[in-house]
Amino acid sequence: MANSYNQPIPPKLPETRRPGSTNRSTAWSCVIGNLVLPGLGTFVAGRRFAGALQLIVSQGGFLLMLLWAILYALSWMRQEKIPEDLGPGSWLGVLGVVFFVLAWFWSLISSIVIVVKGFRRTDLQPRRISDTLRAHR
After folding, report:
1. What is the rounded end-to-end Cα distance, in angstroms, of the chain?
2. Which of 11, 31, 63, 78 has the most crowded CB, counting CB atoms within 10 A?
3. What is the pTM of this model?
4. 117 and 22 in contact (C-beta within 8 Å)?
């Protein structure tokens, strides 16, 4: 291909992503993932250790809340009326909420970092010209 002066146009240098980096659309997908399930978006963004910890804390909190709900329902069935207090093991429910909210805020902070890095466009690195020329031969 040539331009109006019959000179060859050099090929465009393809951009490659660094491993573990995110672009803008991937960053926003990770934010939505973290809103739905704290830690999921962080894990998908390549921050595997932090994402796994966020998932463990959030799901541990969910399981504690579920255990409290089961104990509350059993107490309700035994008494044949709604318990006036939070029922037995109310500390399990409170601890579960604290864990889940903690993981959610932690994943929110991770989401902000992921989006900021996605908008900086630091995830692109140019290829060397010699590599590009070899690929087009």
Report:
1. 15
2. 31
3. 0.66
4. yes
